[in-house]
Write a structure and sequence with these properties.
Number of strands: 5
Number of domains: 2
Structural class: alpha+beta
Shape: rod-shaped
Largest sheet: 5 strands, mixed
Strand order of the largest sheet: 2-3-1-4-5
Strand content: 5-15%
Number of helices: 13
Order of helices and strands: HHHHHHHHHEHHEEHEHE
Radius of gyration: 58 Å
Helix content: 55-70%
């Protein structure tokens, strides 16, 4: 059994993609169906008035044409179907006075197409139908003026019913359109609210993602900076001894010397070389030689002062830069280093092993720039080796002016401060 809703949907279906045109088409189908429903009983009823058969034929033709217009609207040809309907309706209104030779109630009936046009046509179409209806009403009234007797009660009642039916239908269509428009507005507002809520949620999610990503990037940048700093530090470190390498010395020493010259402070430089280190490698092995270098580096770290710069300058040669230190003070530091090396228990590395160090020292009071200072300490180192090794010699070859015992150097200290 076909339900009322499915039957209504089939009767009011319009094959049109444009929603506005489809809405006008559904309104037109309601009007056309109502016109046909009113017209069919009128075919019988009009037989009871003067000129009734002719009027019944006009109504029958009008119903057939209205059915054709309904078919056109169903297929999506809304403008064609609606336009043809108004032509037929106004034509029928014009045929009525021609057949009856009397224009009674014609002007009243011509209100019907105007009411229908209000819900099925655009503004320009409504104006055109209203003008056409007014012109036809005026013309037929002038050409076929009403004659006696006046309209019968049946005619007045029939005209009133038809007019009321179509006006109520037009009113219902208008209110239904307003209701649908309100529903669409409510639905649009609900969708807008939902979209706004969704947009807020998406925005919050994006902000959270951006915050998390920013935090990740900041942490990655911090790690990268730490790694870069670590790599930079590693590039300035000797991997075997852990001391700074020659690259660090080339970077640091010019600044130290410039500061000493700017503030007129003394500065000493010592070049230390392990005695007979090649013999250690030859008599034992390179692993023993590496352990000797590591232990000597620890002794250097233990005897240097906070401000001293200690580097492995190359092979078994080590450079010690001593800011704000004159020659005598530098001698103290270097002699302590020599004694520490001499007294170190090297036999722990390998039985019978003994290691000593020769040190050459120079200061800024007897040399010019950095190159001269390094060269002077290197010359002093070679002099120490020529004089028998295991000693501290200045670039001038002058002996240390104070006895070692006066400085308390026989007891090896744990850290040195001149």
């Amino acid at each position: 059994m076909v339900s009322v809703s499915s039957l209504s949907a089939r009767l009011l279906s319009v094959e049109c993609a444009d929603p506005r045109t489809a809405r006008r088409g559904r309104n037109a189908l309601i009007v056309f169906t109502g016109a046909i429903a009113c017209g069919l009983p009128s075919i019988v009823a009009l037989f009871f008035i003067p000129h009734g058969p002719g009027l019944s034929v006009i109504i029958a033709v009008f119903c057939l044409c209205a059915a054709l217009c309904t078919r056109l609207v169903h297929r999506g040809q809304v403008d064609l179907g609606v336009g043809l309907f108004f032509v037929i309706m106004i034509g029928a209104e014009l045929a009525f006075p021609i057949v009856s030779q009397d224009s009674r109630l014609t002007a009243v009936y011509l209100v019907i197409p105007v009411a229908i046009a209000g819900v099925t046509l655009e503004r320009r179409g409504l104006v055109a139908v209203a003008l056409a209806s007014m012109i036809v009403a005026v013309v037929v009234t002038l050409v076929y003026p009403p004659v006696d007797p006046p309209p019968s009660t049946f005619e007045v009642v029939l005209a009133a019913l038809i007019l009321i039916t179509f006006v109520l239908m037009a009113t219902w269509l208008g209110s239904d359109s307003l209701r649908r428009a309100a529903q669409r507005a409510d639905a649009a507002a609900a969708r807008a609210g939902s979209l706004a809520d969704g947009l807020v949620a998406v925005n919050e999610e994006l902000e959270d993602r951006v915050a998390r990503r920013t935090d990740e990037l900041e942490r990655a940048l911090t790690r990268q900076e730490a790694l870069v700093a670590e790599l930079a530090e590693l590039s300035l470190r000797d991997p075997l001894t852990g001391l700074h390498n020659r690259r660090h010395a080339d970077h640091k020493l010019p600044r130290q010397l410039a500061a000493a010259e700017r503030y007129d402070h003394p500065m000493s430089m010592a070049m230390a070389d392990l005695d007979h280190f090649k013999t250690v490698n030859d008599d034992y092995n390179y692993a023993v030689g590496d352990e000797v270098l590591r232990r000597f580096a620890r002794i250097l770290e233990g005897t240097r002062r906070t401000t001293d710069v200690v580097t492995r300058y190359g092979g078994e040669e080590f450079l010690v830069m001593m800011p704000q230190t004159n020659m005598d003070q530098g001698f103290v530091v270097c002699e302590r280093l020599r004694l520490e090396v001499e007294r170190h228990p090297w036999h722990e590395v390998v039985p019978g092993l003994a290691v000593t160090v020769s040190i050459g020292i120079a200061d800024t009071a007897h040399s010019g720039g950095l190159v001269t200072l390094v060269a002077a300490s290197d010359i002093a180192l070679h002099r120490a080796k020529r004089e028998g090794r295991n000693r501290v010699v200045s670039m001038s070859g002058e002996p240390f002016t104070r006895p070692v015992t006066a400085l308390g150097l026989h007891d090896p200290p744990s850290a040195m401060e001149a």
